[in-house]
Specification:
Layout lengths: L9 E4 L4 E5 L6 H12 L4 E5 L8 E7 L2 E7 L5 E5 L14 E3 L2 E3 L6 E3 L4 E3 L23 E5 L2 E5 L7 H5 L2 H9 L6 E12 L3 H8 L5 H4 L1 H9 L10 E8 L2 E7 L15 H18 L1 H9 E7 L3 E5 L3 E10 L2 E11 L4 H15 L5 H18 L5 E3 L15 H16 L3
Antiparallel strand pairs: 1-2, 2-20, 3-12, 4-5, 4-7, 5-6, 8-9, 9-10, 11-12, 13-19, 14-15, 15-16, 16-17, 17-18, 18-19
Helix pairs in contact: 1-11, 7-8
């Protein structure tokens, strides 16, 4: 008896200008299994920023794609990443989220490891054969691949494939516009914000650079900013969407809000306006007028496939999110800022971050609610039907409120999951 082929997950019809994604992509356990195999096991995934490991002995215990990892700066200054599991019985070796130390000791049987991952002590060592230490058999296991781009560290759970710069491809230009903002480099400020909600992880990929939803979904925020003294009287967002290859995409646009890097608003006061003007002058000196203007006055919502979002808007945010089920995800977010910026600019930056982008701000609760409503709607029809992502399909210059950036993500997603075995 012949077996009917599985129904398609994606419909991409250039002639009709129609692009649709099957809703079972958001509800199916089988699809999530394929994603874990073809995407999260086989793509470069963001781990941490270099500023989170400032000193020798600093460490982070971080969960990436369902794996507990231990990211460490050794006594030699080298960064290393290990699976956070004891080679003896598998318990977590490090139970703290971050800190500084000289070694790691497993709680269960007290096996101890140095910062380079080598086994240095185990109780009752005389009862083990000498061969059990040979070849690092009982050392911590390093991740197959660890690499960084300008202080952004990534891991890869397979030992083959393209290197990190090749993988980032066209996204590097937009990352550089963010990472060049700090004359002395960039740093994470204030630790990690972690939260979860009931929606498929890919919905947050879409939402993170969806210009179409901004004004209707976040109307309460825009009403708020227009009501403040010295506030914006017009909310005009203009820009374009770009496919950067490998599933990466960006929307770049101008907007009237203040950007601490070098776009002030009257509500900040005269001293801040003067400081921002001086910062912009230094940008011009470092990069020339055209690139300085782009860094100062254009906003970027960038997705590095599959799930690193860099929001360079009224503040700079790094965000990752991973599925724990087809209908649930966990999110981690960090504020990124130039090292050595003034106390006033740091205050404005963090206020902007918390006011709009933070988990208790204006945007994030709106977005979580909207995406949870989408997920709930899929259940109404048993995960059947289609999501339409056709806006701007036939445009040669897709705008910030079109959906070309989402189609870039979905094409790479589809390429990967359809080649994965069930």
């Amino acid at each position: 008896m012949s077996v009917s082929p599985a129904p398609p997950l994606l419909e991409d019809d250039r002639e009709r200008g129609l692009f649709r994604v099957a809703r079972r992509a958001f509800t199916s356990d089988e699809v999530l299994t394929r994603e874990r195999q073809a995407i999260f096991d086989d793509a470069w995934l963001y781990l941490a920023h270099e500023s989170e490991l400032e000193a020798n002995g600093d460490f982070l215990a971080r969960r990436v794609a369902g794996r507990d990892l231990l990211f460490v700066r050794g006594k030699d200054g080298q960064a290393r990443c290990f699976f956070n599991t004891c080679p003896h019985r598998g318990a977590l070796v490090c139970r703290e989220r971050a800190g500084n130390g000289a070694m790691f000791r497993c709680f269960y049987h007290s096996w101890a490891f140095d910062l380079e991952g080598r086994l240095v002590n185990r109780p009752g060592d005389e009862a083990y054969g000498a061969g059990t230490r040979a070849g690092g058999l009982h050392d911590l296991v390093p991740v197959p691949r660890l690499a960084q781009y300008r202080g952004l560290w990534f891991v890869h759970f397979k030992g083959q494939g393209v290197d990190l710069p090749t993988y980032l491809g066209g996204a590097r230009e937009y990352l550089d516009l963010v990472l060049d903002q700090g004359e002395a480099g960039m740093e994470i400020v204030g630790g990690t914000q972690e939260y979860g909600f009931e929606a498929n992880w890919k919905l947050l990929c879409e939402n993170s650079f969806d210009g179409y939803h901004g004004l209707p979904t976040h109307v309460s925020y825009f009403d708020y900013v227009k009501s403040k003294p010295g506030a914006l009287v017009e909310i005009a967002i203009r820009g374009q969407a770009f496919d950067l290859g490998n599933g990466h995409a960006v929307v770049q646009y101008t907007a009237p809000w203040g950007r601490p890097i070098a776009q002030s608003v009257p509500a900040w006061g005269e001293d801040a306006v003067r400081e921002v003007a001086a910062t912009k002058a230094r940008l011009v000196e470092r990069f020339g007028p055209e690139r300085a203007e782009r860094m100062a006055t254009t906003n970027r919502n960038l997705l590095i496939f599959p799930n690193l979002v860099v929001n360079d808007i009224m503040a700079v945010t790094l965000r990752t999110f991973y599925p724990t089920a087809p209908d649930r995800q966990v999110v981690n977010a960090w504020a990124l800022a130039p090292r050595g910026e003034s106390a006033r600019m740091r205050e404005l930056r963090l206020f902007n971050f918390l006011e709009f982008l933070g988990p208790g701000g204006f945007a994030t609760p709106d977005d979580c609610e909207a995406l949870a409503l989408c997920q709930r709607g899929y259940g109404s029809v048993g995960g059947e039907g289609w999501n339409d992502i056709s806006k701007g399909y036939l445009s040669d210059e897709p705008q910030v409120d079109d959906e070309a950036q989402m189609r870039a993500f979905w094409r790479e997603w589809h390429r990967r999951v359809t080649r994965a075995t069930p």
